[in-house]
Each structure stands twice: as C-alpha cells, then as structure tokens.
Specification:
With 362 residues, the protein is an alpha+beta fold. The chain is 55% helix and 8% strand. It has a five-stranded mixed beta sheet with strand order 3-4-7-5-6.
Length: 362
C-alpha cells in the first residue's frame, strides 16, 4: 500500500481516462465500504472523504448509483487508511446479500449454484462490475474466471479480492456450507492473512496468476440453495430489466454491436468479423472497445440471443426453426443445444410452460 499521498494512483492524469466509460456503483455497496473502514478505527469519515475527494457528505442513498471514478478513489483512500489490514476481508464480515440491491435479491432467490452464477454474469451491472467474468468447461471442471478490466483495477487490491469473497460467501451461506471448490487461482500476490483465505476458500489455493479462476466439480452446479424461489426470481428479473437498460448508454460499443446483430444474424453473418465491418471497426478495435465496457463480443452475442429467443418463444408464434434461423443458427438442433445449456430445458417445453401460465392468468 502507498505510504505517501502522492503515490495514490488517482492522483495520476491517466486515472480519469482509464475508467471514464465504466459503470456506476450502487450506493448501498459504497456505504458498506465506508462503514467497514470506519469500524477499523483508523480515522474518521471526514478524513476518508477528504482523502478520496468524495463529493457526498453523509451516507449514500442505497438505491442510487455513484460514478465509478469517485468510488474507486474512495476505495483506494480506504485501503490507504486501513494500512496492512485486508479491507476486502473486513468488508465481507459486514456484507449481506441485501446490500447488493436487486442483484442480491436475485442471488437469494436463485435455485441452484449454476442459477446463481449465471445470474451474476447477466446482472453484474446492477451493482457495478470491475472485471471480465466468464464461465466454461475444461478438463472436466466448470470454471468461473475473472480478471480486472483496467490497469486502475489491477492496482486496487480490494477490487481484485472482494468479488470472489462475496460470491463464495453467499454460495456457502445459501447452500448451508455444502458448496465447495476443487481449487482456486487468484490474480493477486499471496496475502498476509493467508489463514483467513484458507478458511473461506479451502487449502487448495494459489496466487499471482494472470486471472482469478474458480474450479468447480460439475456435480456441484446442481446443488440446491436454501432460499430458492423460481417464480420470485423471474419477477425480480423483470424488475431488473429496465434498470439494466437505463444503466446502458445508447452510444456504447455494446449497443452498436446489438444493432449490428439485429441486422446480421438473420443473414447468418453474426460473427466478430462481420459485426466489426458493419460498425466500421477493425476486429481488434471492437474487442478493445468492448473490453473497456466490461464485456466481450462472445458475451454480448450470447446475451442477445438469450433475450431474443425468450421473447420470440413467449410473445410470438414463430416456429423454433424460424427463431433459430433468425438468431443466426444453422438449424433448430443448434438452438436446442444452446437453449438447454442456458435454461436447462428445451425451447418447446419452455414455450408450453409459459403458454399454460398465460392461460391461467387470463
């Protein structure tokens, strides 16, 4: 940690440019950071706010959003005041799912481990996201991977640690401590509080990797969570949709990619090269622009298809083959495979379920 105020990275001219396009942070999360720091008795709220050049005098409004530029300054000032204490470990002691707003409620109502992890990927912008997240299978393991988005985030110990601490703690809580991992690789150096990390993550942990990866036995993905409620979860997702939309800016690279996909997928041309040409970027520029917005082409494509296939199945009478072709799949079987991976069922069963639900309502 810096010992001189001049070494704090938000003093550098590149700081504002590095995170100018990042998503805002939910106020309840900011309050947890501030209150966790104050419990260390390392200084006053006034001192913390002065160091961080924080524009708010009292507590933040829990349901409002605050600029990431200001919040990262606040986090680094809190780390400075905490000294050798691991602020991420301190924060986790006082964090509850409710502090994460709608995203926390979606976690509480998730029915399985896989359901919760997918939700976190899809709704990460409800609380702010400081890194790239992805999931995939490799060598018989289900892997959840995270890496910092920018150099600014790589310099912030708290941001490198807190994401996995939070979600592993929530998964343990909701599974009655049955959730476990094969191993975990962290992207930050070995911490002084190693015993506490072993307590949270188990003994099979290592440090100083390029990215943080959590290796999970696939059988663990179906582990039921003790407050799961599929109907309430679906209602909360409906409430979250307009908030996510409002957090998105029409001039973002992601929005341009979505517009391109709407035009290109029905022609079977929804690949990275075609989309980049449509927007007027090189492939590398498109990937770089999406990275600054905490996403990737593959993630945007998958989310676009998931949103659209749900809409067409529930709201239209188009055949599954027509929907598949419209979304750039070569046939209905390709859509079936993707759909089952997303929703653990096939499109026809999903459609039938919602048609029955509509009948009951009417």
């Amino acid at each position: 940690m810096p010992t001189n105020l001049d070494e704090m990275y938000f003093q550098e001219k590149t700081f504002a440019l590095d995170i100018k396009n990042s998503w805002p942070v939910l106020g309840s999360i900011v309050n947890v950071i501030v209150n966790s720091t104050l419990k260390l008795d390392c200084g006053s709220r006034e001192k913390l706010y002065q160091l961080a050049q924080w524009p708010v005098l009292g507590e933040c409004s829990p349901n409002e959003y605050y600029p990431i530029r200001d919040v990262v300054r606040l986090i680094h000032a809190a780390e400075y005041m905490a000294g050798d204490i691991d602020l991420a470990l301190q924060t986790i002691k006082f964090t509850k799912p409710v502090h994460y707003g709608l995203c926390g409620l979606l976690a509480l109502t998730s029915t399985t481990v896989l359901n919760l992890l997918r939700m976190q990927l899809q709704h990460r912008k409800l609380i702010a996201c400081f890194g790239h997240s992805s999931t995939y299978y490799k060598n018989g393991c289900f892997i959840y991977e995270w890496s910092p988005i920018t150099e600014t985030y790589q310099n912030c110990h708290y941001l490198q640690r807190v994401t996995f601490l939070v979600w592993v703690s929530i998964l343990r809580q909701l599974s009655d401590d049955k959730f476990s991992m094969i191993k975990i690789e962290f992207c930050f150096p070995k911490p002084k509080e190693l015993a506490e990390y072993i307590r949270v993550f188990g003994e099979n942990i290592s440090f100083s990797h390029a990215t943080t990866k959590m290796f999970i036995d696939p059988s663990m993905l179906n582990l039921p969570l003790n407050q799961g409620n599929a109907e309430l979860h679906a209602m909360l997702k409906t409430l979250a949709a307009p908030i996510l939309k409002n957090l998105s800016h029409q001039d973002t690279c992601e929005s341009k990619v979505r517009m391109a996909l709407a035009s290109l997928l029905p022609k079977g041309e929804g690949n990275l090269t075609s989309v980049a040409q449509y927007i007027g970027f090189s492939k590398r520029t498109l990937q770089r622009q999406l990275k600054t917005e905490q996403t990737s082409f593959g993630f945007v494509l998958e989310e676009y298809r998931k949103e659209k296939v749900e809409y067409y199945l529930v709201e239209t009478e188009q055949s599954i083959l027509e929907i598949a072709l419209f979304l750039g799949y070569s046939d209905s079987n390709s859509l079936n495979v993707a759909f089952r991976n997303w929703f653990d069922t096939c499109p026809s069963v999903y459609r039938k379920k919602f048609q029955q639900h509509k009948t009951i309502i009417h």
